[in-house]
Amino acid sequence: MSDVDSSLRETLSSGASRILNVLEKTQEVEAAAEESGEDPKLLFHHRALNGTIFIKRPKGGPTTASAMVAPQTAEVLENGEMKTITITRQTRVEKGDIDTTCYIPFDTKAIASGGNSFELDGKNHVQALLNQLGFDSQQEGEKVERDRKLLDTLLDLPSLDPFLLKERVLNLGSDVSDLYFDITEDEFADIKSYILKKFRPITERVIDSNSKNFEQTTEQFIMKLWEGRDLEYLKPITSVFRLPSAGAGEIYYSWKGITYYEYQYKRGQKPLLEFAEWLHTSAVPSHYVKPEVREELDTMARDVATAFAKHLKNASGILKIYNDGYEDLFVRGGDPKPFIDFLKQSNTMFWDISASISAINHGVSAWKQRTKRSRGEKLPADDLQKLLYILERVIV
User: pLDDT tens across 11-39, in order?
Assistant: First the structure.
């Protein structure tokens, strides 16, 4: 098998935000096109790229980020009692801490059975694209340029969440089938509406409410902020918030991304709480096992609970920084400095919250798959051990 880890099967089947299964989606697109008699609207122009799978995962070892956060506490279950643990050190996850792997399965009907892979940002990725896929990214031409930009987009995203992916692909002006994105039009519109609502108070800082065509100008400004490309138009807000003009576009996109994760976090509370409850009460074998086996399983469950709590606290902590600054400025009309500080750190926070929420969602998805047929969500010892082994490797 390639260097993709041993939890590959669960990773590929979990529908997690760390995965873009282009191969599977392309098969769906081609089947739908054949039935309708229309040409398939494929993601890539180069044929072999449409037979790939992209995977986001944290790099091994400690992160390289320099920003530190204060010690945090988390509640875990130990020997039937709740215990408070302290997480003494944590670094922000930054762009360089996340690998984007391109995986090419040997057998398209058994994708988890093995294949070749390479890092999309690795030093030999240009040669790997040519050798393994026949794609010469150094050639000239509109189609090659389009595919190159899409590969860069996949690399620049902190996760492969359908909303983030679709929004960026649409910005490329690509005519791509919606089947590549596991998100309905209604869901996409609801998320977009939520984000635009958070943007609206900004207009009060740069647009006179008594001016002619105020509403029209406000809507135009909000959409420019959403797109984040016309930096000349956005100069007034960049100036108001004393942001560096060179990185303003990235800051606006990161702010939008964090707001998206706020939306996702708020609406995903129920499964998160159910998973946490399972870890504390039901991550035990359904039948009697020897004490040493029970102790091993308890240790594994405790480790998973600790990792889950760390990511949960990290995500909620970032959203607290965001909302404290936002509400102080736009709701209470107070000091703008906390919100400005948030904006200046938003790029790092965007990658950091994405890593935590992706880890949480990946774990919840794997847990749901493995326990959906179990009685009371308790598993036999062997099945529980396999699940905890998987969870230890995906909640990272």
Answer: 665 556 889 999 999 999 999 999 999 99
